[in-house]
Amino acid sequence: MMLHRIGLAGGLLPLVLSFGAVCLATATAAAREIYVNNVAGNDILDGAAPNSVNPGQGPFRTIAKALRVASAGDHIILANVGQPYKESVSLVGSRHSGTAYQPFTLEGNGAVLDGTRPVPQNAWEWVAGDVFRFQPEEKQFQQLFLDGAPLVRRTASDSNPASNHQVPALEPKQWALVDGWIYFRVEPVSLPQSYALTYATLPAGLTLYKVENVVISNLTIQGFRTDGVYLHDVAGPCALVGLNCRWNGRCGVAVEGVSQMQLISCTLEGNGQRQLLLNGYSDVDLSNSHVSGNGTTAWQLGKNAHLYVDGQPAEPDGAK
Fold first, then answer.
1. Domains in the chain: boundaries
2. Cα–Cα nearest to 23, from 105, 104, 98, 102
3. Given this structure, which CATH class describes domain 3-115+205-313?
4. What DSSP element (H or E) covers 18?
5. pLDDT of residue 316
């Protein structure tokens, strides 16, 4: 495992953090604040206040509802109440965009966006010995969790030649994805139903498509089947600030199309295939961030993509 520690690129963080100050000084239209609380909120409320103080007034329950009512330059503010938001949400087009003076913002306040759900109790079938398996609905990318934390995964390089299914040799509480099946080895005299197992079911955590001048901050995005954050044709530039994208099936962050992005003070770790993927004509500035290969590629760059680390071009493929 190699840990990449990326220093702060000069001028990038002050630029992003100055958005709010410049907005207050120069914007002609005040941005609306939209509040979301996934415990105390309700989508029949107006989203105009963090608490329900008057009939009809108070926070929404879901981020999706906040995005449905949002307009350009608005601020969505999530309450962090200790319960993860179980949603896969998208920001699309001009209504979810802003300007350099008034960006569209999603403030996570340290909340968690989670794409997992429990493995159905009746999904398991016995294979041999202490090994069981089940077939998830989506088979290409996956993650398996115990008590909310990822389990050790074995791959084809650990194949057990004695197995008819070419299942890697598994120790207790390890798993593998083979031909669309998740294999899991239990401890002696145990069954899979004895464990609080969850798996990745929702697609990408956050999708940004054809937006400009968006800031997403202070959010953990985990357990999604493909990517924590997927961006296509974003400009302005857009910024991810203080995000922790971990344990997703494919990538922590994937950037495609003609895109301009800043990743500032982010952590990308433990994702299934690579931590950061750049394709198309994407330009990304990465600063003051931790990118942990953890046995997978730290980053991968397509032919026409560019990654800058402290203002310097990065190698096409980050070390493992």
1. 3-115+205-313, 117-200
2. 102
3. mainly beta
4. helix 12-26
5. 72
